[in-house]
Amino acid sequence: MGLAFPFGLLLAGLAIPLVLLYILKLRRRSVPISSTLLWRRVIEDSRANAPWERLRRHLLLLLQLLALLLLVLAFAAPFRRAELSLTHDSILVLDVSASMGSRLHGSERTRMDEAKKRARELLLSVGGARRAALVLAGPEPLVAAPLSADEPRLFEALDAAQALESPADLGAALELASTLARGLEHADVVLVTDLAYVPDPALAQELSRCRVVDVGDDAENVGIPAAALRSVASRLGTHEVLVGMTGRLAEPERVTLVLEAAADAHEPDDPAWTEISREDVVVESGARLSRVLAVDAQPGSLLRARLLPSREDALAADDTAWLVVPERTTLRVLLVSERPFLLEHALRAVPGVEVAVAPALPGSVVGMDLVVIDGPLPAVLPSAPVLAFGEPLATGAPASVIEHPSIMRVEDRHPALRHARLHELSIASAWTSAVPPGGRALIETGGGAIAAAWSAPGGRALAFWFDLVETDLPLRVAFPVLVADSVDWLTERAGDEGTWPGGRARSIAMSGSQVELVGPDGSRRRLEARDGSVQLPALTRCGAWRLEGATSRSLGVSLLSPTETDIAPRPLNVSPAPAAEAMPSAGDSTSGRAPLWPLAVALAACVLIAEWSVYHRRRE
């Protein structure tokens, strides 16, 4: 027995006001009468309501308290541990996210070891000619073993499964399992997981259609959920490393943050590390803290920030962040403006940018990495990424002018706006228009969007629909920061900065037609480069990766997932799927997640019906 949401029991405090309703004195009007013989019942009721008098036995109160406690218990989501045997064709989904590699509390075994043990028991329970399939839930779902009755093949695929160093997409894996089971007359869909996931409505719907085997525990962990690298414009060769730290701990823990550097990230073997800085920090459970560390490093250098916990740490994958100092190339930027003074100075302040100025957009922009337009956007955008300040495209609904707009929302998480604070930007007038198809509004006012980003034929496009001289933006420190971040995002140079979160596919610029991807363990994979770029798969191992082709470059891949660092199991509060959608299943969840709240709700309903019956009988 257990509770998925034990804090729900705090709602039992609602019993206090319920009892107070029975002991508070009612204010009654005094009326002279000839005799009290016919009013004995009223007098007794008045005495029962005297303040602070000892509460008498009251059947209605007892029934109401019992119903309240049952409803509170249901809200706490009780469950039971039960053995599950698969008596139908089964689709087994195994979570292989990074948190599954964490060690169980007080043991050298990992959650993945426990998950394999439970999965093996489930596969052994498939009797006769029943079939089973194994789906691995990683960044992309993978059918490790197709539906068959071949036990050796299933066990071989199960034994080969390993916890990755990246998050997992449980929703996609369960959707794939549901698709495999949809063509079967009877099927069990079973998810083996530690429940360290990000709840969302779509995932809750998929969870309601399957059985869950929970292998999570209360192990403690501290890690690095965020890291970034940025150059210091005022000092050539100096960079700042931002490291974020958090943990799931029973009590605050002192850890040591170490920053190290290697001269060359292209070395195939483990490079020689030089310690740059060392600092002791205290991490509290659930709290986030960060440190900014300065380092002098040349392009191509490999950096790593490591946490050294003072006691046993459950998950090692999130203790290190890998970063590579980018080898910047010169960007050629065309500025189209009749008043280039403001934007030209902001662009020239961006490291590695060459600026060419033209009063009008030329017929061809071949050789330009970015086009900045200060004025109305043309009907056809140039064949290059575009940054624009001015009137929007004259397509679809006409743009409207709004005077002194009040900014309601700014998309602070967008890479181009993450360092610029534009909430209090003063604007005399601006244009508002519909966001292009597939685009994203970045700044919204009461009259509509005044900034947007979208994919254009020449690449990314970012437009601010106002004239710079009609705002106080050029007078703000945010202006050169906004221009620098916009250049990095539009040219996709920001994506090469420092580190890359594991588990994400990406496209990266590479010359040549054949490229080899070399992993931290020396494994190689051949990729094809098209149109000067190569599509990288989701990288699921942390460390320094290399791309070798006509030119070589290195990538730092780190876990960087707050969800995986917080390895505590989440409450599994899902509603049963409708009968038409539910999968025919043989049994309940085996490992602690067979819900009992429907029974508590049913008992509470029975008690309320009894209370209603007693109340009306007394009135009669």
Question: Number of helix segments?
Answer: 11
Mean pLDDT score:
82
Note poorly predicted spans.
Answer: 575-592
Please compute the radius of gyration using only Cα atoms: 32 Å
Number of domains: 4
The amount of helix comes to 10-25%
Determine and state the CATH class of the largest domain: Mainly Beta
Q: Kindly, what is the distance between the CA atoms of the first and last residues, rounded to a whole number of angstroms?
A: 43 Å
Within the largest sheet, what's the order of strands? Answer: 16-15-17-18-24-23-22-20
The profile of the biggest β sheet is:
8 strands, mixed
CATH superfamily of the largest domain: Immunoglobulins
- Strand-residue proportion: 25-35%
Task: Kindly identify the CATH topology of the largest domain.
Answer: Immunoglobulin-like
Structural category is alpha+beta
| SS elements, strand count | 32
User: Judging by the overall fold, what is the CATH architecture of the largest domain?
Assistant: Sandwich
Shape: globular
Task: Characterize the structure shown.
20% of the residues lie in helices and 31% in strands. It is an alpha+beta fold and 620 residues long. It has four domains: 2-80 and 604-619, no CATH class; 89-219 and 570-591, Rossmann fold (3-Layer(aba) Sandwich), CATH 3.40.50.410; 221-328 and 500-565, Immunoglobulin-like (Sandwich), CATH 2.60.40.10; 331-492, Rossmann fold (3-Layer(aba) Sandwich), CATH 3.40.50.880. Strands 16-15-17-18-24-23-22-20 form an eight-stranded mixed β-sheet, covered by helices on one side. Helix 3 packs antiparallel against helix 11 (597-619). The longest helix has 23 residues, at 597-619. The chain is globular, with a radius of gyration of 32 Å.
